[in-house]
Write a structure and sequence with these properties.
Shape: globular
Helix content: 55-70%
Structural class: mainly alpha
Low-confidence stretches: none
Strand content: under 5%
Number of strands: 0
Number of helices: 5
Distance between the termini: 28 Å
Mean pLDDT: 89
Length: 71
Amino acid sequence: IKLIDTVRISELLAQGGLSPEQLSETADIPQEELSGILAGSVTPNIDILAKIAKALNTSMDFLIDGIDKLD
């Protein structure tokens, strides 16, 4: 089961001018794990998903289904 749409993460990285390495550092996620998530080979647990959402200033809902509940 694919939990998140990795395209959304990539789009948010581009919009924020962040590299995956910067996201890894900001979200306090090992680079190898984030690379796997972005490649679609690793499914993040809820804690990692929350860290990614917080670092990208979005909601977990947006990363999962494209609906941003922050508004």
